[in-house]
Amino acid sequence: MQVVTFTQAQTDLTQAYAAEHVTWLVAFSILIAMLASFASFNHVQLIRRRELTNSRVSWTLLGAVAMGAGVWAMHFTGMLSYQLPLDVNYHTGRTALSVVPAVLAGYVTLTVISKPTLQIRDVLVGGVLMGAGIGLMHYIGMSAMILPAERLYQPLMFVLSILVAIVLATLSLSVRPLLSSMLKHPLLLNLLASVFMGLAITSMHYVAMHATIFMPLSEAYQRPAVAMLDNSALVTIAVAVAVFIVLISSLAVVMRFRLLHVELGQKAAEAEARALEDRFRTIAERVPGMVYEFRLDASAQMSFPYTSDAVRDIYGVTPEEIRNDALILEQIIHPDDLSLVYQGIEESARTMQPWQSEYRVIRRTDGAERWLLGSAAPLPDADGAVIWSGVITDITERKKHDEMIYQLAFYDALTELPNRRLIYRQLEQKMAEAQREGWCGVVIFIDVDSFKRLNDSQGHSAGDSLLRQIGARLRKASSESALVGRLSSDEFVVVEAKLADSYHACVPHAKQLATELLNTLNGEFDLEGHRFECALSMGICMFRHHKVDAAEILKRADIAMHEAKSAGGNQWRLFDPAMQSGLEHRYQLEQALRSLVNHPDDQLSLHLQPQVNANNQIAGAEALLRWQHPDFGAISPGEFIPLAEETGLIVPIGQWVITQACELLAQWQQSADLAELTLSVNVSARQFYQPDFVESVLQQVAKIGPVANHLVLELTESLILEDIEEAVKRMLALKAHGVRFSMDDFGTGYSSLSYLATLPFDEVKIDQSFISKANQGDSSREWIIIEAIIGLADKLRMQVIAEGVESKQQQQALLRRNCRAFQGFYFSKPLTQEAFASLVTTQRV
């Protein structure tokens, strides 16, 4: 049996059997073709999925079967719709064989059009193969018809059917690339392409059916003895195939929707992952340091699975260089810190506690030494490895700042020696070691003699230069283990440890050390071209098992130093407990003095020493302060007046003295014997230069009214020389209200006699030191000075009073030199106010 037989020119077509198509079967065949196309196009999307790479052939074959079966079912459904006036059966073998070209064509077509990027050539190839496969399937299926008629094909219509199949198949395949830019929904795009493909398949079938002519047989018909299918069987098969196509289409749609859902979810997850990754990278790049993940596996292999780009600045390497092997960092980490880093990592891996370490690296790019701070949290891995996630930051600048802060906090900026704070701390440590280990050490307290005078005469730059050189010499002269520091302006300290095992054995070593230091520092210093020989006072104090702190040891050394300074300086003294007793007494005296200023009337009093004229008549008195303490008894003015000056308490005490003097002068006005007497009061420099001194004195002078000239304020030469202009201004302000002034201790200062002519004094007191030294004869040097003072004062119309007159011979010598006023023990010792008043009254009788 031939598959294809064409009509001849002499064929009488009027003899052909007439046939009709059943409309609903035609429609059903078109639907089957569209369903088959829809199933195949959905398979294209499944084939393209990367997630289904391993099953791509299976999905392609399933799609090809769906398309081939659909084309076959459409064909035979169309055949069933073609009603001939004959009994038609179908050859089973050929009927089954006809599906093969359809499936193969579908497979080749799906393979071509499932490419990620569809070119025009691919569309043309797919259209040709699809059209050819449909045509081959059709004509093999037609050849399976068994009927009592001859089957012929009109040549032109035959060719046209093949061309129609190819053209329409190509157009249906072109729908996707042409409309994909307009139709974004893939399901709608597949549906539209399926409509075109279904029309292509059915159009080819029905064009080919019009090309078919069934002619009556010229001889008796004999049915072949082969397996055949009748119409009912064919309908059953066609329906089964249609159901199969529906199931395949449904499966493909469900899978497509599931994959679409998965795809959308995956895209969302990928977008979120990319966003998180981008955010992480952004954060990692903005973190001030290197964000990293470090891995230590069971075989001790180290790697950095992730590092931010900051690794280039931190270590001078790229992320790729250390991603699989971190041993390169061994050459970068400072050799002194490498073991510390490894120990920290091992400890963290063992305890699963966070790792943190400060270490140095020598950066590979420029060889710079940098300080790093690393911190990370460990997590165990399933394969026995440990993974740390953390940050490494460059703390070089912070280290520099810390070092600078430490230097500023614990070191002297001028000499670069340890300052008071560090001295106290390290001395405490050495004292603790001495008590624990049983050795003896020594503290040497050093003070520069006359340092203030150097600053005043040569300037502070010279003083600074001296201090720097002293610090350098002390470092050089001391042992490497010694603590050499600067306590304050011109005070240094040297602490030597482990001199001996006992206190007594330590003493000679300490003395020798102090002597060596003194000799070292006694040499000349070059102070900006000026040669300066330095003198120093040193105090020595040992320490071993004293139950005292560093402050107390330094205090004792300071006490010994002051003893050396009081002894003339440029020497050392060893601390003696008696020194501290004196210091404690001074402290108690100072506390008593501070308490005194609140209630001076209870303990202070004014004693009066008479001042007499040439006739030995009392003309006035000098008020002398006395202190009677309830516990200490009478305290000498030579002991408490300097302390009051040093502490500043002389100001309220001096104000009390002036107040008492004015009140006493007011009382004297009530007595004829006392009314004409003057009263002299000593004024200290600190009191005199108080801003309110003039106002406070005038308030008290108001109490004595017109006899203000009976009040005489005694000022020392050194007081006036502190600020001559201000002193003259204040003196004139008080003299305008009658107050008189006396220059006390004249001649003992550094001024010349010419100053006396420029200062508004009313009298001059010759210091008792001149009188006591003038006993050697009238030609002594002191008498020459005394005569000069008396002569100058006489010409300036100033009264002269000689202090410290203790014999008649002294008075007579002074009288011969025209001195007319005297004061001293020869006339009277200081008296109480009552005794003085009684003496004056007795003298007036």
Automatic annotation (TrEMBL):
Transmembrane residue ranges: 22-44, 56-75, 95-113, 125-146, 152-175, 187-213, 233-254
Record InterPro entries: Biofilm_reg_signaling, EAL_dom, EAL_sf, GGDEF_dom, MHYT_dom, Nucleotide_cyclase, PAC, PAS
Domain spans labelled PAC: 355-407
Residue ranges of every copy of the GGDEF domain listed in the record: 439-577
A GO CC term assigned to this protein in UniProt: membrane
Domain PAS: 276-352
Alphabetical UniProt keywords: Membrane, Transmembrane, Transmembrane helix
Residue ranges of every copy of the EAL domain listed in the record: 586-844
Domain MHYT: 21-215
PANTHER family, sorted: BIOFILM ARCHITECTURE MAINTENANCE PROTEIN MBAA (PTHR44757:SF2), DIGUANYLATE CYCLASE DGCP (PTHR44757)
Protein's name according to its UniProt entry: Bifunctional diguanylate cyclase/phosphodiesterase
